[in-house]
Amino acid sequence: MAMIFLALGLVLIVEGLAYVLAPSLVEKLLEMMRQLALDERRRVGAMAMVLGLILLWIAHQLGV
Q1: What is the pLDDT of residues 26-46, one digit of tens each?
Q2: In the chain, where are the structural domains located?
Q3: What is the C-alpha separation between 40 and 33, in angstroms, rounded?
Q4: Do 20 and 31 contact (CB within 8 A), yes or no?
Q5: pLDDT, mean over the chain
Q6: Cβ contacts of residue 33 below 8 Å, gap of 6+?
Q7: Cβ-count burial of 9 within 10 angstroms (0-12 exposed, 13-18 middle, 19+ buried)?
């Protein structure tokens, strides 16, 4: 359970940093995402999930 809180906390820190350090870049990214078709947005989301799983697997292999 502690690992879930750790993971969620890290996600929120990274998300928050993007809004604090580059809010205009976040707005541009959101506008670009709005212009994508629904299927393309799903593909982007799926790719992000796969990348996250790969990173989790690497962390697990490193003993975290």
Answers
A1: 999 999 999 999 999 999 999
A2: 22-64
A3: 9
A4: no
A5: 92
A6: 41, 44
A7: exposed
Q: Which amino acid is at 34?
A: R
pLDDT(64) > 80:
no
> Which has the closest alpha carbon to 62: 10, 14, 54, 8?
54
User: Is 37 within 8 Å of 48 (Cβ atoms)?
Assistant: no
Mention every residue, 6+ apart, whose C-beta is less than 8 A from residue 19: 26
Retrieve residue 17's tokens. Answer: 């940093």
d(CA 28, CA 40): 17
Tell me how far apart the alpha carbons of residues 28 and 45 are, in angstroms, rounded to a whole number. 18
